[in-house]
Amino acid sequence: MSTKLSPGERHSPSQENEARTLIPRRRLGTTLGFAAALATLAAPAAAEASSSFALFESGQVRPLALSPDGNRLYAVNTPDNRLEVFHVTSLGLVHLGSVTVGLEPVAVAARSNDEVWVVNHLSDSVSVVDVTPGFAPRVVRTLLVGDEPRDIVFGGPGKRRAFITTAHRGQNVPFDPQLTTPGIGRADVWVFDATNLGPNTLGGAPLNIITLFTDTPRALAVSPDGSRVYAAGFHTGNRTTSIHRDLVAQLGGLPAPRTDSLGVEQAPTALIIKYDGEHWVDYEGDTWDAAVNFSLPDKDVFVIDATANPPAQLPGSSGFYSGVGTILFNMIVNPANGKVYVTNTEANNLQRFEGPGTFAGSTVRGHLHESRITVLGNGTVTPRHLNKHIDYNAPVAPLPNPTNAKSLATPVGMAITKNGQKLYVAALGSSKIGIFDTAQIENDTFVPSASSHIVLDDGGEPVGPTGLVLDEARNRLYVLTRFDNKIAVVNPATKTVIARVPMYNPEPPSVTEGRQYLYDARFSSSNGESSCASCHVFGDFDSLAWDLGNPDETTIPLPGPVRLALPEFFQTFDNLDSLKGPMTTQSLRGMANHGPMHWRGDRTMGNAEPSAQPNDGTFDERGAFATFQGGFVGLLGRTQPIPADDMEAFTDFALQIMYPPNPIRHLDNSLTPDQQAGRDHFFTPDAAIIACEDCHRLDPDANSQYGEPFPGFFGTDGQYVLNEVPQPMKIPHLRNLYQKVGMFGMPAVPSILPGHNELTGDQVRGFGFLNDGAEDTIFRFMHSPGFDLLSGFSPNGFDDRPGGDGDIKRRQVEQFILAFDSNLAPIVGQQVTWTSDNGAAASARVDLLLARADEGECDVVAKMRFGFEEIGFLYVGANQFVSSKQSFGPLSRAMLVLVANLLHTELTFTAVPPGSGERIGIDRDEDGVRDGDE
């Protein structure tokens, strides 16, 4: 019996069990060493179930690169923190070796046949790797850059300049990121002279750090002559924003309906509106100009003069493109005509409601983000919907169906022919490569068809393509497939996969088996365009709010428990209404040990069983995540929920995704004086009634006594609060508020103390804080009545009496919250490469890494090249390291540096998550035999 399925299908639960017996999942476990070069096409062994792996789900940006001569292929092995090197032959890929870089590498670019650069997303670094043929690859320099670097290209004179995208923050930046200042760009491009990195500087000396007026950036592209570099924001928005519920009431109230289908009155809520070029309008077209105190220029893609000294954004309107898309993934330049193609999705968050849309006549079901390629050239922006065949008003159809088969979801990496006539697009959510005639893309004459797709599935299972490169000399496409951590070798002429080359994968089966359910739109939706990752981009969020109430449902009881019921400052609604209003997309990171899901905690097990920590009732995260089943039908547009065992696999995966370390807090985990003062007020031990911490619990060890794998409360213990807003809310965690900076400006409303209500001009984000994103800053939130001393509710509240320090204290608490504790200490991921030129500066940073390891905040590993072999070391305390070769015995730090000096090699130290050092440093497969002894 054949168990291979058509794209978009899954087995029934009984068929699933049978299929999984006949077609086992491919789990990767064999080490890819230099001596194993001829064995890389063999099937790998099973990964260890007891892996120490920490899951961050970083999105790959440029995971593959060919050497200029086309003889080498470089691949980032994101889960194994390595760069893999392959020799390209007419018969296939031969693995030549690998080298450890930083944590979560997501991009690689070849500067020459002898040197490649690797971008390390979690380590906030760039590894410069010597790949001279005939020698083993080795890291010769580590550059320290801003937070969460994502992409790299080479441009400028002789293409000797490296351009790297980073967030406008991080412990390695040489400036104040001005997180609380209006009108500041949140995206940076670091530019280095690759031929002169600064021999006596620790992390490299950039030529310039270009700040761009958009949110955190992602993709880069370079013109064929290297004179222009294009930089794109990531979550660039679509000119939508939320207006506060009080403003909605003052200006006429919400558009209909204002009751559910049974006529039950609903709580007042915020409203999502959009700037249409002239006015701020809602979904019905009504104008709300008086409700917005800022403007959203929606600058998406920026043009940099790569030849200028220093490189800089072009002035005026020639320096940016607007309206490119909401979420921008990747870019490529057509070498023939210079036009830029941008893979992106455009959000439909102005439309209201999930569900069938019967009562309200409106639903966003199956129509969340449209998959697009936007063409930029000569100042014009022309979006092309890849799935223009979809009729979003058509009834939901069972799988498989013809519409689904034609669709491409989540377009990411691209490759283009040298003549610029054919474009290949990796569709992460469809497990396909789309093939397009560029002229048809530009003039919008292409016709969506399954016949123009290359299906990459392996045995009926999706593989998740993220990046690709084209080898025209050999008529091959090399595609990195994220779900199975392989390189698919594709013949584009025959549209077939001719080989799958595995890379070693330390991820446990619970990760590799569950990842596909986040991304696979063919399986998640009827039309093949929507998946959970449409909004939870790479397991995070999309920086938008959505009004996903369902008026065809009705009120349900609040499950509780309630931690705090505040005095009623306005009319309140104590149960969970069907019309919940706008809610900002929450991250899938860090859900373990943090109670029910969603802002209101309305998908939980709290009404099914008594609630008790750590895993019963409301606090049962597995049960809460299982209730997301409703989203597959009501939101993504599926005819029925996914099979229970698939949902279980999805749960296993999702509850392991972690937040990265906080990039605002000092690397030694200390607080600035303002942050410390804010923390002191946050806890307020002498408050007679309430302190911030009474609701927003901070306890890094919470539930560790029960053996929780992800212990700690970081802003919430999963309980609810009443009367803070008209409807009940789960108390939210506070680990990622630094990600939400960029909206400034809000008119006065009765429920917030007045002040700071002036017009603020251009801003980079349309959504701020709280559940609806309608409050622009943390500072604003703390002006809510009840937090102040004069209200009489909090005797130790903010003192706004004449001469009081209310706003000073608010600013200090804001600073603390932006640097809030997280599951991992700030040092995790940080690196330094010791060389003969930077010993003094590197020594101080090594001191820092080891000191934090001594405090239990991280493990520290070190790597150096010895002949053709990479030798690893693990810090075990007391200034001692053990090696990946048992025979080496313990080495002191001084001896380790001396050995590197005698061998004339570099030595790279990395702080890794606690408990992962042995695997990353000396025992890659965790089998108890050190790497150098296998």
For the biggest β-sheet, the strand order reads 42-47-43-44-45-46
The share of residues in helices is: 10-25%
Q: In whole angstroms, how far apart are the ends? A: 41 Å
Unreliable stretches? 1-50
SSE topology sketch:
Blueprint: H1 13-22, E1 64-66, E2 72-77, E3 82-89, E4 92-100, E5 105-110, E6 115-120, E7 125-130, E8 138-144, E9 152-155, E10 161-167, E11 187-193, E12 208-212, E13 217-222, E14 228-233, E15 240-243, H2 245-250, E16 271-275, E17 280-281, E18 294-295, E19 299-305, E20 312-313, E21 320-322, E22 327-333, E23 340-347, E24 369-377, E25 380-385, H3 402-406, E26 411-416, E27 422-427, E28 432-437, H4 438-443, E29 453-455, E30 465-471, E31 476-481, E32 486-491, E33 496-502, H5 509-512, H6 516-519, H7 521-524, E34 545-547, E35 562-565, E36 582-584, H8 621-626, H9 629-634, H10 644-654, H11 673-683, H12 692-695, E37 698-699, E38 713-714, E39 720-722, E40 729-730, E41 761-762, H13 778-781, H14 806-818, E42 831-834, H15 839-854, E43 859-866, E44 869-877, E45 880-883, E46 891-892, H16 893-902, E47 907-912, H17 917-921
Parallel strand pairs: 18-41, 35-39
Antiparallel strand pairs: 1-2, 2-3, 3-4, 5-6, 6-7, 7-8, 9-10, 10-11, 11-12, 13-14, 14-19, 15-16, 16-17, 19-20, 19-21, 22-23, 23-24, 24-25, 26-27, 27-28, 28-29, 30-31, 31-32, 32-33, 34-36, 37-38, 39-40, 42-47, 43-44, 43-47, 44-45, 45-46
Descriptive tags:
6-stranded antiparallel β-sheet; 934 residues; single chain
Task: Walk me through this protein's architecture.
This protein is of the alpha+beta class. A hairpin with a 2-residue loop joins β3 (82-89) and β4 (92-100). The protein is globular and about 75 Å long. The model is unreliable at 1-50 (pLDDT under 50).
